[in-house]
Amino acid sequence: MTPETRQRLKQVSTATLTTVLFKRGLRNVFIQGIFLLNRAAPRMVGEAYTLRYIPAREDLDQLGAFEGRGHPQREAIEACPPGHVLVMDARRDASAATGGDILMTRLMVRGAAGIVTDGGLRDTPTIEKLEFPVYCAARSAPLNLVRHHAIDAQVPIGCGGVAVYPGDVLVGDGEGVVVIPAKLVDEVAPEAASQTEFEDWVEVKVKEGRSIFGLYPPNAETKAEFEGWKKSRK
Amino acid sequence: MTPETRQRLKQVSTATLTTVLFKRGLRNVFIQGIFLLNRAAPRMVGEAYTLRYIPAREDLDQLGAFEGRGHPQREAIEACPPGHVLVMDARRDASAATGGDILMTRLMVRGAAGIVTDGGLRDTPTIEKLEFPVYCAARSAPLNLVRHHAIDAQVPIGCGGVAVYPGDVLVGDGEGVVVIPAKLVDEVAPEAASQTEFEDWVEVKVKEGRSIFGLYPPNAETKAEFEGWKKSRK
Amino acid sequence: MTPETRQRLKQVSTATLTTVLFKRGLRNVFIQGIFLLNRAAPRMVGEAYTLRYIPAREDLDQLGAFEGRGHPQREAIEACPPGHVLVMDARRDASAATGGDILMTRLMVRGAAGIVTDGGLRDTPTIEKLEFPVYCAARSAPLNLVRHHAIDAQVPIGCGGVAVYPGDVLVGDGEGVVVIPAKLVDEVAPEAASQTEFEDWVEVKVKEGRSIFGLYPPNAETKAEFEGWKKSRK
Amino acid sequence: MTPETRQRLKQVSTATLTTVLFKRGLRNVFIQGIFLLNRAAPRMVGEAYTLRYIPAREDLDQLGAFEGRGHPQREAIEACPPGHVLVMDARRDASAATGGDILMTRLMVRGAAGIVTDGGLRDTPTIEKLEFPVYCAARSAPLNLVRHHAIDAQVPIGCGGVAVYPGDVLVGDGEGVVVIPAKLVDEVAPEAASQTEFEDWVEVKVKEGRSIFGLYPPNAETKAEFEGWKKSRK
Amino acid sequence: MTPETRQRLKQVSTATLTTVLFKRGLRNVFIQGIFLLNRAAPRMVGEAYTLRYIPAREDLDQLGAFEGRGHPQREAIEACPPGHVLVMDARRDASAATGGDILMTRLMVRGAAGIVTDGGLRDTPTIEKLEFPVYCAARSAPLNLVRHHAIDAQVPIGCGGVAVYPGDVLVGDGEGVVVIPAKLVDEVAPEAASQTEFEDWVEVKVKEGRSIFGLYPPNAETKAEFEGWKKSRK
Amino acid sequence: MTPETRQRLKQVSTATLTTVLFKRGLRNVFIQGIFLLNRAAPRMVGEAYTLRYIPAREDLDQLGAFEGRGHPQREAIEACPPGHVLVMDARRDASAATGGDILMTRLMVRGAAGIVTDGGLRDTPTIEKLEFPVYCAARSAPLNLVRHHAIDAQVPIGCGGVAVYPGDVLVGDGEGVVVIPAKLVDEVAPEAASQTEFEDWVEVKVKEGRSIFGLYPPNAETKAEFEGWKKSRK
User: Fold this and answer.
1) B49 pairs with which residues across the strands?
2) Which is it for strands E157-159 and E134-136: parallel, antiparallel or unpaired?
């Protein structure tokens, strides 16, 4: 992802991105069943660093599991590169947490771009005050050991019903999170920026009282009008 | 619906309306699984203008479908009369949108009373700032073509598990939306207004420390006390 | 529950409590599927006073059912002792209410510590303004008679998938509600308070840039550092 | 329930019973989400003997719980009177069993009319061979202690979303189970028998090629024809 | 649909049809959540005749609704042409029936090809003995008035999550039902027949011990072998 | 797993195994939401060979994906060792298949002990006739590419909510499938065999009319009686 792409993606909505990806035949790109916990957070753009959970097993998932360096969840928190998004596959089971405030804070301090989980998070009253984009499926106090066992990182996963490959780009706004395949990101970003510029102009026209017929989608006349407006701004 | 009825319905809660309709044998009048997106919106009262979606089919539901005048969703946005509520049947599937900010804004500018969908909406960070009542089942970025195909308008539909016939009256507050059969609306409104006046008085008594026994529901003594209070106010 | 325990429990999170209970083999202590309606409410700590609903039956559940003294829901509102939490088992069915603003206000005035239901509540726009902890599964306008029949009080129940025995202690914060078995509460509270002190210190260290390796969970060195810090504060 | 009523109910379908109860305003009488495990079983008719489960708690629900006489599930197996149906409220959670083959066999030997649970059952490959009506929500091997705690018997319960009061009459066929309020059973049975006689006659006419218009529901001419046919049979 | 197409479709599986439609970009063609009630039934092939239900409303949906000729469900039973499949949209709600044995028998006698509903059916112990393909979502005794209101016929609908337009061709086997868009049916049938011939040959080879590598999907050598085998049979 | 263990496990039920594992603190060992497709199959016992799916992505999951040797699903079919069970993690999504008759037949011919998937299977009318244990979550015609992407094999997975590590032992009967951690299997098998012998004896006693009090669980007297009976048989 070029720096220009990253910058552009911070200025387009997830809604617009789904349209641009739909034109390329991709219909299943919006992570289902999650929400933005900390609504004062900046827009989220970053490459996926993935973590996979399987169901817990009582003999393996005791508190001692976190000790030492080997625990994949703790490893992932320290390994996720700056500018990346930690994406967790919790099998859409939010009845227990996949992380809490200390881990979220550490990720933020390390410069991560955000975190997305289709499981729960705990300590959400603290997390929601961070200026850091955190998306989860539920506020869920139980520690992860009750339900989840972190098993490996940087493998392809599912998150909220969407495939996420390490290196895919995740974009998040107040609506949710879209996954852009790595190979498409540099072509999707400028197209989404253009579409955004057009839709912002349409919004103004609609507020002025214009009918949507011929405007959205635009007919030839509207296209010409928009192109004229764009030129006039330069 | 008389203007007086419309005015009264703006001052009663959906909770009170379900009680008044229950007395007439109607138990299933509250649209399930939706929420008010823009909490600064005024109370919603208006007649139903309905739109029905069926599942999308990949060969029919391409971006070109929106072009020209014939698309039922775009037609409905321009046809829904002022003072009416656009009600969408999306089969309670919120994994894709049934509309976005441009369409919502156009509806508002045209004088609609509000919109209710049991599917998703996109561009919700923008929509939630409109001073216009918008109810949906989820914030959902994917465009409708991914999942929904608008098929016809002004037919009886289901929305959130409730029957909605064109012309039924929808009332919405911060709790949700109630559907009142058209033929009942002028008798329901004054009864709900009376019930509201009584419950407001009860609330004051409860805050003063009165037990609910004999008060709510009222015994003969309480009824007399309330009637006396009402007279004293005039 | 000693006054000291009550005080301590007001200062620990539900997340920390699930960890302390997990150490004792209890994995299912967090009530699933509910949320705090009135976010300005104080922390909730209190003994459970339980109320059980079964499905409604049309011939029994008419408006007249509330009249007289015998209705279990109304009885429970007047019987729940000060400092206790009214906990309702509505079979996780939130398609109708299990109470409304008048009952919630009466509970608050009577000195209850809060209320938890795995069903719906009505009049939520009013309830959410009370400075009183109210947890429910949904905003739901329909009166309880549509779906629920209050049947008995102070029996063991399930609430949001968790066993609640009368006298168990419920603790609620912005994340949700944990159920502590009565016999464990006086040993759980100080342990949770200690754990909270440690985690608050960890949070500071993480904000200063410390890695979580060796810190959380702590190795011997970290434990010594924390003990030193604790001594230095006294 | 008179012996004549019991006999009649063995010859009518659950479908017909829902219609007869619907005429009396009862819409929610069919237990949802269960199936007949042993399809060679006789029709089931009997009064409800109820058993209630709440969620398990790890410290209480260990194998030792079954020892001695006090365990409510074991008590219920030995206490359910001959001719009665044991009805279990397992909160519609079928992820663990609420009984197994030994208990089902004991019930059968004791002369019970059948058993209905909205939880799971274990040892179903053995149970399904009994000539005894057993209805459950799933084949589920885990012992009840994993999820369920038997708490009390002969209290009103919910089963599969339907209210069941001790003494209500349960009727089961290959389709499922209907709950008839005790006070209605002697009037419902003959009406259902008459309706069955009429529908059997209609079925013959339809097989002969008759249109359903005027036949089902019957117009005056059809009613007369049916009455004539009934007389001709005597 | 030509007679030859109809004949071919009776000899291919729904699995094979989903593959042939997938090649044309159609991914959502298998009706979800239904099963074949009468497993001795012949294969089902026929054009869709559609019926749409909305939620019931207590004042409209009383037993009298079936009287006279106007009731859409009864009309549909008498209007569905021979060789067609009656397809019902019950909003995937199987808690009540959308038909019973008399209506199913009438449909069969009239020469319909089968029936598909994403709601429940009643009298299933009788229906399952008919030699007629009947697919539903559940055995469900309650009459349709409890939950469903038949509203119109021969409009596009959703059934089990799939779009069904009047005239589309439905094919059913023991696995379920596939919907083929009307315009594609004559090209899909021969392709599916060829694919079936190949897969039957593969099945024989696999039973003989052949590895699936190079066989399924076939490499050039396997393709040649299969073509040779086909020629040798003529 | 010793040959003796394998033999013993073929003679115990999944219900008994859950009890024996419960004694060791393992509560979540029964795969939820699946059923045995081919009921004439022999009992299933074998070590887990795992396959993991993630959600499909339209650009990657085209029919060409199966060509060549690299496709993980096809590789797994050819790599699963004789005596092992192929266990598939399809994220509990059964709206598309994870395999069909050709692959199942190949597995059987290769000597696998069975297959378990928490997704769908296609060609089930053919598969159900194989004398080979096949467990799935639904009959589902759509090819896997519609929803699933096979990603890797022999990694720890979740299946039906249960953790499965490669080498764990899966035991299946007509009720479902239990997962036994590899390290426990040789101690669990004899204990389950003993428990089975006792319960078979209890079943006889219950059929003779014995009360379950003191019998199940057994008191000292019953234990002595059973031990005597065992000795008398030798």
Assistant:
1) B86
2) unpaired
Angle at D125 between CA D122 and CA D131, to 5 degrees: 100
Question: Mind listing the pLDDT tens digit for each residue in F113-152?
Answer: 999 999 999 999 999 999 999 999 999 999 999 999 999 9
Concatenate the DSSP letters of all residues of E118-158 into one string.
Answer: SSEES-HHHHTTSSS-EEESEE--S-GGGTEEEEEESS-EE
Please say whether the beta carbons of E178 and E52 come within 8 A. Answer: no
Interacting residues of C197 by C-beta distance below 8 A, sequence separation 6+: C230
Q: Minimal Cα–Cα distance from F6 to chain D, Å?
A: 20
Decide the pairing of beta strands C138-139 and F114-117.
unpaired
Bridge-partner residues for E148, per DSSP? E55
Paired tokens of B119: 């599917």
Q: Does D28 touch chain C (CB under 8 A)?
A: yes
Q: Which of C175, C197, C199, C203 to probe by mutation at the A interface, max A CB count within 10 Å?
A: C175
CA distance E34 to E94: 10
Residues E140, E97 contacting (CB under 8 angstroms): yes
Nearest residue in chain F measured CA to CA from E32 = F95
Find the CB nearest B30 among C103, C109, C141. C141
How many helices (H) and strands (E) would you count in chain A? Answer: 7, 12
Contact A151 F156 (CB under 8 A): yes
For residue C217, is the peptide bond before it cis, meaning its omega torsion is within 30 degrees of 0? yes
SS3 state of residue E104: helix
> How far is residue E127's CA from residue E99's CA, in Å, rounded to a whole number?
10
> Is E78 within 8 Å of D206 when comparing Cβ atoms?
no
How close F92 comes to chain E (CA, Å)?
A: 14
pTM of structure: 0.97
Peptide bond into F217 cis (omega under 30): yes
Cα separation of D159 and B66, whole Å?
48
The complex scores an ipTM of 0.95
Cβ(A194)–Cβ(A72) below 8 Å: no
The one-letter amino acid at D147: R
Using an 8 Å CB-CB cutoff, list chain F residues near E9: none
Name residues 155-194 of chain A within 8 A of B (Cβ).
Answer: 173-176, 178
Contact criterion met (CB < 8 Å) for C106 and B211: yes
E touches B, CB cut-off 8 Å, minimum 3 pairs: yes
pLDDT tens digits along E109-147: 999 999 999 999 999 999 999 999 999 999 999 999 999
Residue type (1 letter), A75 = E
**What does A39-75 look like in DSSP terms, one character per residue?**
TTPPPEEEEEEEEEEEE--TTT-SGGGGSSS--HHHH
